[in-house]
Design a protein that fits this description.
Helix content: 25-40%
Shape: globular
Protein name: CBS domain-containing protein
InterPro entries: CBS_dom, CBS_dom_sf, Diverse_CBS-Domain
Keywords: CBS domain
Length: 141
């Protein structure tokens, strides 16, 4: 099964010029934990609720700080032609829970581990990916 069959296609994106407050409010409004960051239609990063907490609040940035200060620029993306098993493997390898799906650097969808587990016909792959993503990291002290 191809990832295009299970991905969410109605993806909200934001530019890097929005504030942490604006993006947090958008996440709450649409009930998501991540939003791709796009500039001139091209994906340049992604921000997660975890980024807001660890890179924003914990670093004492104000709610009016630009999201460009905290979003992840290291992008792991998939394509619509990718098989569900390939996406699950990619997510496990990079320990990510959400995978933006792109066509020519433009976001056309997003898939989560939950999508793979619920709608994909590869529960073993979703379970393996979740185990890998959920591996505890050693605490930094």
């Amino acid at each position: 099964m191809k990832i295009a069959e299970i991905m969410t296609t109605d993806v909200e994106t934001c530019p890097p010029t929005v504030t942490i407050q604006d993006i947090a409010a958008k996440m709450r409004e649409i009930n998501v934990g991540s939003i791709p960051i796009c500039e001139e239609g091209r994906i340049v990063g992604i921000v997660t609720d975890r980024d807001i907490v660890l890179r924003g609040i914990a670093e004492e940035l104000g709610a009016d700080a630009l999201i460009s200060e905290i979003f992840s620029e290291t992008l792991i993306t998939g394509t619509e032609e990718m098989l569900v098993e390939e996406a699950a493997s990619l997510m496990a390898r990079h320990q990510i829970r959400r995978l933006p799906i792109v066509r020519q650097e433009q976001v056309i969808g997003i898939v989560s581990l939950g999508d793979i587990a619920v709608r994909g016909k590869a529960p073993r792959e979703a379970e393996a990916a979740l185990e890998k993503v959920s591996e505890p990291a050693k605490p930094r002290r």
